[in-house]
Each structure stands twice: as structure tokens, then as C-alpha cells.
Amino acid sequence: MKFGQVQKRIAENACFVWVKYGETFRDATFQEAAQMRKEQAKTQEPIAFAENPGLKVIWKTPQQQAIQRHSYSLISAANEFCLAHA
To answer: Is the pTM of this model over 0.70?
Structure first.
């Protein structure tokens, strides 16, 4: 494999380890791959929404929640009707 291909596999999949940088590589052991994946997750995966500055979360008002819960009962009644008349 070419140097760039190995670098890409290491970066994306965490499946190779350099034995001598730029010359030889080998498959990563399970423990090495797990450690590399853990480090990769810390740097690449998104942070929780609470840590995102400027993110606005819109919570439903009690009235909106009541309307939505009422629609659940209507859906349930419609399902029961369909099952009874199938």
C-alpha cells in the first residue's frame, strides 16, 4: 500500500499501526484498535447539545403537551376501531 492509503486507513478505521513510520506497518491488535478508536471518538464525534453555545432548545408549553397527549388517545382509539372491524 502507498503511504497515503495507510495514513487514511489509520485515520478512518484505526486498523493499522506504524512499525517504522513511513516504511512498514502492521494490523493493530484489539487493544490498540480500541485505544485508537477511543481517542478518535474524543476528537471527531460531536459534543452534547448542552455544550453547544447558541443552541436554542424549544420546550413545549403545558398546553401544547396536553394537545399532543390528547392526539395519542385519538390514535389509540382509531387503532382499536380498525382492529375490531378488520
So the answer is: no
Measured CA to CA, the distance from residue 72 to residue 77 in angstroms comes to 9
| Residue corresponding to grid cell 387503532 | 79
Q: What tens digit of pLDDT does each residue of 20-67 get?
A: 777 777 777 888 888 888 887 777 766 665 566 777 778 889 999 998
Query: What DSSP assignment string belongs to 15-77?
Result: -EEEEETTTEEEEPPHHHHHHHHHHHHHHHSPPPGGGSTT----PPPHHHHHHHHHHHHHHHH
List, in sequence order, every residue forming a beta bridge with 24; answer none if it has no partner. Answer: 20
